[in-house]
Amino acid sequence: xxxxLAYCRSxxxxxxxxxxxxxxxxxxxxxxxxxxxxxxxxxxxxxxxDAANVLGTFxxxxxxxxxxPHFKNIPSTRHVEGCPYASLKTPTTGLEADAAQLDDGxxxxxxxxxxxxxxxxxxxxxxxxxxxxxxREERVPSADNNVEHPSRDSAPDKTHxxxxxxxxxxxxxxxxxxLKRMPLKIGEHTAPYAxxxxxxxxxxxxxxxxxxxxxxxxxxxxxxxxxVDFEQKVWTQLxxxxxxxxxxVNVYLSKKLIDSYRKRKAFLEEIKHAAESERDLxxxxxxxxxxxxxxxxxxNPEQTFGVxxxxxxNLDHFMIREAPGLADN
Length: 329
Hints:
2 domains, nine-stranded mixed β-sheet
């Protein structure tokens, strides 16, 4: 089992591991999980021990990861009797550590909603005389400007971090029944995880979903802008055509979008690594739906060809990652 939440002393709040990752890479806030203290999310348990009784993190600072990020007990972690997290045994031997690694493969805590505004954090003052150091994150425009920040009592039922539902989908991909049962809401749209995540070749089925697919190529334009080409194609029959034809699909990431991104360094590390990688990689995005466009031919600019394309508008809702479980599907 993995911890879904942990209490962060400096923020005086409970965070998911995905909140921690988001803060680690955010260049607009001063946060380093390696210097933070995370404790048991059970209030009664946490109150029974001093500040030295902390938890560890797994994959909190790696830009690229395969195994599910989480909080974990370390050998010195203690819990009160009856704490639900006390049963999450810390491995003390090599065999136990190997067994524990097998448990890293699935995200068990499914958020029921992805909120389209970023969370705001209030840093706890070091003393009563010190004013609170506010770590405010700029709100991201959404289709519903009335979306409110949830109370943390509702976590992890709601999340602001796109990587969280993506990890749920990827790590549980083999369990089709589970993905059909678990609901996900984004904006005004609610659907099971299995339906909300739409393969890129079926993007014509519905708009406003999370689209995903295997990457064929990443075109790097001098490390300033990028185009992601998908391996799968959309088959459709256009007006005037006698049968269906395959059309390529891509998404474009502009220099302006990347340069203004609050996690620019981490994003460039992620996509440059992906562009050079020989591994199978997958792209997930939300917020735009590729549409058919006519593009000039390189060989003959006077001729055009059709391609389904979209310009990514929000990098918080875009990610590239390894996903071995999707390889044969």
